[in-house]
Sequence to fold (428 residues):
Amino acid sequence: MVEAHDAVDVIRAKRDGGEVPEEALRWMVDAYTRGYVMDAQMSAFAMAVLLNGMTRGEIRVMTDAMIASGERMSFAGLGKPTVDKHSTGGVGDKITLPLAPLVAAFGVAVPQLSGRGLGHTGGTLDKLESIQGWTAALSNDELFEQLREVGAVICAAGSGLAPADKKLYALRDVTGTVEAIPLIASSIMSKKIAEGTDSLVLDVKFGSGAFMRDVEKARELARTMVELGTDSGVATTALLTDMNTPLGLAIGNANEVRESVEVLDGGGPADVVELTVALAREMLALAGQPDADVEGALRDGRAMDVWREMIRAQDGDPDAALPEPHETHTVTADADGYLTRLDALPFGIAAWRLGAGRARAEDPVMHAAGIDLHAKPGDRITAGQPLFTLLGHDATRFERALSALDGAWEIGAEAPPATPLVLERITD
Ligand code: URA
Fold:
């Protein structure tokens, strides 16, 4: 335990726009985790941060203090570089599934410690649990062994990483302080740095289906996290990517696994392939392979071989049939023209209402539930053509899903202007 400070002094310093001295900030995080600083005091501090921000130095100290609250993993001794990816989350974002085996196909270790979905953004573990037998729970020894043998691991993050963040995040959730960029950055990066990766690529999304709707705020978050990674000795790059439209054609769990396997088989929707390849290039560049033939590894089956090994190593059967929905409902176009808009957020909410996501952490998900899209913005449409299909086990949910989708897409006479999927690359 660091030397005691006064929580009220720390709150006042931040309230008045000052910089909190390093030792006092470390003490504040440590004392809060141990229960000496009250929730009310930490809430006031979080609100002061939301209103007045933090310096680059303060954000680094805050992150470091949260890392120090728990276990810190190390992959030294693995004999290969480690590189991780973090996405701020979006609708149809299944990129981790093809990306981890693709990057591992180049001899790099990819430890993807992931979470479950809550609300309209899906969770990587929920998607993989659609695969018969697959298990998310690995001990640290099993994780290490799989990284050595297979190269890619997607598994549940242990609860020992950054427990201070867990407590603070729950408090922010009920005090209107989730949106503070220094707190988001330190929350995400404390967990990633504690994981012990050598380097990290961030997919920071903006737009209707993203955590940060506003591109300026997403850019600020990306810059803050890249600086933080660099200051903490983790080589970090970020891509700023568009999440106004769902990624790919599948939103759900089992259907997202199916689409990921298509990408690993050299096919799949163009946007999913583009983002997978862009992130793989960044990860491999950080791991010392800037010229790796990423598309080649998708075409010639090397990435697929690693996928199959990765699934088998966690007791999954890569050849087993994926769960199918008992009920479907297809919505068709009512006019000729171009699909000009397909709004990510309502499609995420609709998939969630169909049972693909959960409202409370303890709820189960229905792996076969979700939405298959048949068209994307820019596609030419004729009246009567299927636009999307709702998938579920329970047709009574279709009405609530459809009500979320009211006004969520548009057909117009002109093709919409093309917008880039990857808007910017951010480095320190
Ligand atoms: N995700 C996190 O892990 N932390 C935040 O603060 C926001 C999103």
Q: What stands out?
A: The longest strand covers residues 199-206. The pocket of uracil is lined by residues 169, 178, 183-184, 187-188, 211 (CB under 6 Å).
